[in-house]
Amino acid sequence: MDRTTIDLWVGIFVALGVAALLGLAMKVGNLTSSKIGDTYSVSAAFENIGSLKPHAPVKSAGVVVGRVDSITFDSSKYEAIVKINIDKRYPFPKDTFANIYTAGLLGEQYVGLEAGGDEDTLKNGDKIIKTQDAVVLEKMISQFLFSKASENKSDDKSDDGSNSKATKAKSTELGAAPF
Amino acid sequence: MIKSTLHISIIRTLRGIGSRMIERTWRLGAGARLFFLTLVYSGESFRRFNLTLREVYSTGVMSLLIIIVSAFFVGMVLALQGYNTLQKYGSSEAIGVLVALSLVRELGPVVTALLFAGRAGTAITAEIGLMKTTEQLSAMEMMAVNPIARVIAPRFWAGVISMPILASLFSMVGILGGYLVAVPLIGVDDGAFWSQMQANVDFRLDIVNGVIKSIVFGVACTMIALFEGYDAPPTAEGVSRATTRTVVISSLTVLALDFILTSFMLEV
């Protein structure tokens, strides 16, 4: 075979390979979406981060505004310190509320930011004070069971007690105003 | 009398095991030496890049068809099988993630390496074995041409260059095959297919690691094929045996290496 024909075929081969890799990077991987320009970094302390991981998205109103940079453990307060990089285009007030939410019922966890009303904005190195921990399913279930059990106990009491107690329990159940 | 024949047969078995072990160890050492020599004498394959280019044609370009066709079918089967299980849990949209991650992380590099060993590795072994049988390699040495620099190294680098290209093509074509089955045929939502995939496939952790795997497999497969050819007894039977050994040893090495690499790459 002529050498120039070989060159042509090898050229096509390499071009196909580069195109496939580019396609993987752009269409399959999240190379484009994970690219955030200039960022500022803030930290937040949580008592429980659930299964939050580095590179998890930081969302506000459902829009990705940043990524979790690192998660460390503060052994003096026994808290998790989560460092977040937020896009410079999105300033947030100082009293922004940081929550850890779960995408879907069993999906991955992300940090949700809810803006407060402060005039000052968060700057590089600031700390978010208002935080809410991740919801741990086991904790929630045990709380639910505990409250159910205490409810049953009060129901038992009202059964052997007077009628007024039963009506009172009913009124609180309906959520009537206590006046 | 009985005791003595038993005695002899035990000793014979032990001797057989021992000689086989020594033979394997010797071959491993010789292979490692050939690998080292290939690296040392690989200057010429870059200075005279036409040599390498011609080998890229015969190992890489000629493997394109088998790689693309099998990738297409592997992707389609993955989508069918994955959908069958995922829809039981009401998460058929995750089919894109399943197809992409299994192809990019595992099936792309591994199946490509197995096909590469069968398609290109055997050709390399047979070619070099026949060169040795017909005394072309000795003729080169007589003319003061180093056969390792002239014959072995260009083929080695061609294999190392071809493997990652073939593996990325395999992954991409496989994902397209999975897309064809999942979206137009089964009716999974088009947007969910791609967006879930993009949310869960990481460029550094998944795609780059897959490429690293394919480069390692390329080194292993090509080196095994080259060594088996270079080491083949100069007879017709010897070359045929060497070709068979190339496929067997390459496949086993690829699967074992895959386990080792994966355990390094997944941070458990």
From TrEMBL, chain A:
Entry keyword annotation includes Isomerase: no
**Could you tell me which residue ranges the Mce/MlaD domain spans?**
39-116
Membrane-spanning regions, if any? 6-26
Quote the Pfam families the UniProt record gives. MlaD
| MF terms in GO | phospholipid binding; phospholipid transporter activity
Annotated Basic and acidic residues bias: 150-162
Alphabetical list of InterPro entries matching this protein: ABC_MlaD, Mce/MlaD, MlaD_Phospholipid_Transporter
Q: Which UniProt keywords apply?
A: Membrane, Transmembrane, Transmembrane helix
Region spans: Disordered: 150-179
Q: Which PANTHER family match?
A: INTERMEMBRANE PHOSPHOLIPID TRANSPORT SYSTEM BINDING PROTEIN MLAD, INTERMEMBRANE PHOSPHOLIPID TRANSPORT SYSTEM BINDING PROTEIN MLAD-RELATED
* Name of protein: Putative phospholipid ABC transporter-binding protein MlaD
**What organism does this protein naturally occur in?**
mine drainage metagenome
> Which taxonomic lineage is given here?
unclassified sequences, metagenomes, ecological metagenomes
From TrEMBL, chain B:
Keyword Transcription regulation attached = no
Keywords annotated in UniProt: Cell inner membrane, Cell membrane, Membrane, Transmembrane, Transmembrane helix, Transport
Stated membrane topology is: Multi-pass membrane protein
Q: Which GO terms describe its cellular component?
A: ATP-binding cassette (ABC) transporter complex
- Subcellular localization: Cell inner membrane
Statement: the UniProt record of this protein carries the keyword Protease:
no
Pfam families for this protein: MlaE
- Which GO molecular function annotations are given, in alphabetical order? phospholipid transporter activity
TM stretches of this protein: 61-83, 95-117, 165-187, 207-227, 247-266
Q: Which residues form the signal peptide?
A: none
Q: Which family does it belong to?
A: Belongs to the MlaE permease family.
Question: What does this gene product do?
Answer: Part of the ABC transporter complex MlaFEDB, which is involved in a phospholipid transport pathway that maintains lipid asymmetry in the outer membrane by retrograde trafficking of phospholipids from the outer membrane to the inner membrane. Probably responsible for the translocation of the substrate across the membrane.
Q: What PANTHER family does the record tag this protein with? A: ABC TRANSPORTER PERMEASE PROTEIN-RELATED, PROTEIN TRIGALACTOSYLDIACYLGLYCEROL 1, CHLOROPLASTIC
Instruction: Give the multimer and partner information.
Output: The complex is composed of two ATP-binding proteins (MlaF), two transmembrane proteins (MlaE), two cytoplasmic solute-binding proteins (MlaB) and six periplasmic solute-binding proteins (MlaD).
Question: What is this protein's name?
Answer: Intermembrane phospholipid transport system permease protein MlaE
What is the scientific name of the source organism? mine drainage metagenome
What gene makes this protein? Answer: mlaE_8
